[in-house]
Amino acid sequence: MANTELKQTIQASLKAFEKQPLGKAAIALLETMGYRCTRAAASLGVWDIVGIGPKDIVLCQVKSNRWPGSVEMKGLQDFQAPRNCHKLIHRWCDRQLEPDVVEL
């Protein structure tokens, strides 16, 4: 594949990825890790995505280009969850194929 063709392929992949809502991208990532996921339709709850795996649970907050503010972060940290539950924040920056992930 020529260098120009490779650049065009990468640009096309990025454009397709950017059109995908971040929640769906986060779910797709978690599902590849073996979780069955559901998302809050209007994101009115504390967590955007709940993923259930064979041995643990993942609660995920999805952000674009920024981390949660201090008040929101405190709410996420103080959220009462079972011991086998991982509280994650996925931050997707523009043109990034994978999120920055922080576990609380």
Give the secondary structure arrangement, pairings included:
Blueprint: H1 3-19, H2 22-32, E1 36-39, E2 49-52, E3 57-64, H3 70-78, E4 85-92, E5 100-103
Parallel strand pairs: 3-4
Antiparallel strand pairs: 1-2, 2-3, 4-5
Provide the descriptors you would attach to this structure in a database record.
globular, 104 residues, single chain, Trna Endonuclease, Chain: A, domain 1, alpha+beta, 5 strands, 3 helices, five-stranded mixed sheet
Helical content stands at: 25-40%
Tally of helical runs: 3
Q: Approximately how much beta-strand content do the residues carry? A: 25-35%
Main beta sheet strand tally, sense and closure? 5 strands, mixed
H/E topology pattern: HHEEEHEE
The geometry reads as globular
Please give the number of β-strands: 5
- The third-level CATH topology is Trna Endonuclease, Chain: A, domain 1
Question: Structural class of the secondary elements?
Answer: alpha+beta
How far is it from the N-terminal to the C-terminal residue, by CA? 43 Å
Architecture per CATH nomenclature, i.e. the level-2 architecture: 3-Layer(aba) Sandwich
Radius of gyration: 16 Å
Describe this structure in a few short sentences:
The chain has helices spanning about 5-20, 20-30, 70-80, and strands at about 35-40, 50, 55-65, 85-90, 100-104. It has about 100 residues and is α+β, with helices and mostly antiparallel strands.
Kindly describe this structure.
With 104 residues, the protein is of the alpha+beta class. It has a single domain (21-103), classed as Trna Endonuclease, Chain: A, domain 1 (3-Layer(aba) Sandwich). The protein has 3 helices and 5 strands, in the order H-H-E-E-E-H-E-E. It has helices at 3-19, 22-32, 70-78, and strands at 36-39, 49-52, 57-64, 85-92, 100-103. The protein has a 5-stranded mixed beta sheet with strand order 1-2-3-4-5, with helices on one face. The longest helix is centred in the first third of the chain and has 17 residues, at 3-19. The radius of gyration is 16 Å and the shape is globular. The termini are far apart. The relative contact order is 0.16. The mean pLDDT is 82.
